[in-house]
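From the pipeline queue, job 12 of 40. The input is one protein chain; the requested action is below.

Action: predict structure.
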Amino acid sequence: MITPKWLKTKCQPIGISDVILFLTKSLFNKKTFNKNFDIGGPDILSYKEMLLGYAKHRNLKRSILIVPVMTPKLSSYWLYFVTSTSYKLAVSLVDSMKVEVVCRNNSINAILNIQPIGYQKALKKAFSKIEKNEIISSWKDSYISSGVHHNISSHIIVPSYGCFKDKKKRKFHNKESVVNKIWRIGGETGWYYANWLWKLRGLLDKTVGGVGLRRGRTNLNSISTGDAVDFWRVLYANKNEGRLLLFAEMKLPGEAWLEFKIVGNQLEQTATFRPLGLLGRLYWYSVLPFHGFIFKGMIKNITKHNRITTN
């Protein structure tokens, strides 16, 4: 990689588990009242050393060449396109990387008797969680990561007036199998049909400042209200009821919902779009031919080997 000179900036990384430990041990501890402390791990590293340390842990051979320029805007665009971060967060991160972040007063280590783990050990711990699928939450699930500026709770009731809908139904034998497939949708699993088109839509969204598909999902098997799933936000998730409602956070000339609902021995899959003006209507009709086979293929594969008849 050819990188700007901010990769030489020093920082003192700390594991999330240690941050939580500091916070919990500070509660009701009078020695910490009305004081401020810096917390950090035992290693003071440059961002270059952190990147190379990460590569070493992954058994990847990497070389980094630093050029004597800052290029914050270019760096922000690069970070935005190759990672799951939003552009707004990418800009904030790059701007902060100009500033050295090393602990000044870290006497809190002795006060609370905490010895933070080092960078390599923190990496090992993080990847252990990933391999065991034990990630509870992620920054990308935070609502601010979507870049959407309206109240998400106002979309929990799917509208019908002035909306376009694509509704498909398909019967099945095994409810548990169908629900499990729905609860694994997105991320590494994909969307069960024409994944390359979903990826293309994500890339197009990314080019116009949207979230794209890189957010994926935090957990492969579980899903909860508020989670991010690719460029969707989970509005409602009830596995016993067999209902999952998603709201689109991609850039659109309108608002979109995708709902999966079990009714008896039948899966109902409904895509709803509320257009914003003429541009929204033109958008719907332009993607309608793709919706025809994408949504049909998706519900077919979700209920595959379980179907009785097709509606």
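Job complete. The longest helix spans residues 277-302.
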